[in-house]
Amino acid sequence: MFKKYSMQWSCRGCKKPVDFYVNVKKRRTGGFFYRAIVVGELPRLDSEKRDYARYEANSAKLEKSRQCKCEPSLKTGVMEKWPGQECLVKLWKKLINLGFVNMSEIALPCPFLSETEPDHEDIVEADILFGK
Asked: Which of 16, 32, 56, 65 gives a 20 to 30 Å CA spacing to 74?
């Protein structure tokens, strides 16, 4: 299973695409885990400020926060209604918690918390995107 969820947000009249991907990966020892990643430019609150050093530091934090992995469990409080939902919600919350990323410009509330799965595209090869 490898899915792509395409979204967009507006900046000064331009539409900026943002894609969320989720993949299920088998473990060598049995079982599986999910991986999620976001690709594209995210709306930032610090882009208008003149503190370049802080912007660069925040950019480094953002790059580290673009991916997450999780095992299916009930510990996160998200009862999965469709495969990969828990991991996508975890990634969304991870981005919100950065403080300088404005996820509400993409969607409010989190589109992955819904009972029905958002529109998506099924994709075959995930290892290229996730870097094996």
From this structure: 65
Q: Name the token pair of 61.
A: 């934090």
Which pTM value belongs to this model?
0.85
List, for the chain, all residue ranges whose pLDDT scores fall below the cut of 70.
73-79, 124-132
Closest CA to 81 of 111, 117, 110: 117
- From the list 10, 41, 14, 23, the residue with the least C-alpha distance to 107 is 10
In Å, what is the CA distance from 41 to each residue of 19, 44, 57, 81, 125? 9, 9, 16, 28, 22
What's the residue count for the chain?
132
Q: How far apart are CA 36 and CA 5, in angstroms?
A: 11
Helices and strands counted in the chain (H then E): 3, 5
| SS3 readout for 24-76 | EEECCCCCEEEEEEEEECCCECCCCCCCHHHHHHHHHHHHHCCEEEECCCCCC
Domain boundaries, the chain: 2-130
Nearest 10 degrees: CA dihedral of 84, 131, 37, 52? 170
